[in-house]
């Protein structure tokens, strides 16, 4: 329910209940969403880089990682403590030498960014996470927040927005664009679901398989990469077809191919 008191929060602030799966209360003002009362605790204070915030970069493109590193290292209070190109490598690094914040892509070798976010959250809830991806924010912002990240920046806007996003997240704020913030607030206040894309109804696993179908992978290849049985992948395919109102596998492959390539 909507909190009735905003005393001390300043004009235009509204205290909102947490979305399902998120353990904090949101304060919203205009297009900004801020968390308070987080169950995650304070961001960890590591000692190997005293006085500097430690950032782990997770992206499967070395050139893009280098660009992010250069951007982050320009800030006197931020330091890149590691880079990873694969999900397993990133999880190992986060466990062995925990960063303060992880900047992570959604498309990774050896796994999906959403799954990695969930696993890092389970590993250490103090680690904060920011998604930087070419995937559309309109489809993935809510997913990454539910998974445990605290913000989303499109890669095309990283040069202008990444540092601000990192700082806001470290200050306890949720960083999303104004349109996404507005949509989230509408849902929290009134439960509005008008104009939803059927893609939004897919679970994270179904979304992952849907994207892999769009990339041309067979059921056997998907099963091998995700360490699932072909029967399980086929069950997910059937659920996807039902949710997207598709009649057969040909329609699913066609729709997935076009949707996936529209995002890149």
Please provide a brief summary of the model:
This protein has 264 residues and is α/β, with parallel strands linked by helices. The chain is 44% helix and 17% strand.
Structure overview:
The protein has 264 residues and is of the alpha/beta class. The chain has two domains: 53-190, Response regulator (Rossmann fold, 3-Layer(aba) Sandwich), CATH 3.40.50.2300; 198-262, Winged helix-like DNA-binding domain superfamily/Winged helix DNA-binding domain (Arc Repressor Mutant, subunit A). 44% of the residues lie in helices and 17% in strands. It has helices at 62-73, 87-96, 113-123, 137-147, 158-170, 178-190, 204-214, 219-226, 230-243, 249-262; strands spanning 14-16, 25-29, 32-36, 53-58, 78-84, 101-104, 107-108, 111-112, 128-133, 152-154, 173-174. The protein has a five-stranded parallel beta sheet, with helices on both faces. Strands 1-2-3-11 form a four-stranded antiparallel beta sheet. Strands 7-8 form a two-stranded antiparallel ribbon. Strand 1 (14-16) and strand 2 form a beta hairpin. Helix 2 runs parallel beside helix 3 and helix 7 crosses helix 10. The radius of gyration is 19 Å and the shape is globular. 31% of the residues are buried.
Shape: globular
Number of strands: 11
**Poorly predicted sequence stretches spanning 5 or more consecutive residues:** 1-47
**What percent of residues are in strands?**
15-25%
Total helical elements: 10
By CATH reckoning, the class of the largest domain would read Alpha Beta
CA radius of gyration is 19 Å
């Amino acid at each position: 329910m909507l909190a009735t008191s905003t005393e001390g929060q300043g004009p235009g602030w509204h205290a909102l209940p947490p979305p399902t799966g998120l353990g904090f209360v949101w304060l919203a003002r205009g297009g900004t969403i801020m968390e308070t009362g987080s169950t995650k605790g304070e961001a960890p204070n590591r000692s190997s880089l005293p006085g500097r915030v430690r950032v782990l970069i997770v992206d499967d493109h070395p050139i893009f990682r280098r660009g992010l590193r250069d951007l982050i290292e320009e800030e006197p209070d931020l330091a890149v403590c590691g880079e990873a190109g694969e999900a397993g490598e990133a999880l190992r690094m986060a466990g062995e030498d925990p960063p303060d914040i992880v900047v992570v892509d959604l498309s990774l070798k050896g796994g999906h960014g959403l799954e990695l976010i969930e696993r890092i959250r389970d590993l250490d809830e103090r680690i904060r996470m920011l998604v930087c991806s070419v995937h559309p924010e309109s489809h993935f912002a809510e997913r990454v927040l539910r998974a445990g990240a605290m913000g989303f920046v499109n890669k095309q806007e990283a040069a202008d927005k990444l540092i601000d996003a990192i700082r806001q997240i470290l200050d306890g704020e949720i960083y999303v664009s104004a349109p996404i913030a507005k949509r989230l607030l509408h849902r929290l206040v009134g439960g509005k679901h008008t104009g939803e894309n059927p893609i939004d109804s897919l679970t994270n696993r179904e979304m992952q398989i849907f994207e892999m179908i769009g990339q041309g992978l067979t059921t056997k290849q998907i099963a091998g990469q995700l360490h699932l049985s072909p029967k399980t992948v086929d069950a997910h395919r059937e659920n996807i077809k039902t949710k997207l109102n598709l009649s057969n596998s040909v329609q699913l492959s066609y729709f997935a191919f076009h949707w996936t390539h529209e995002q890149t």
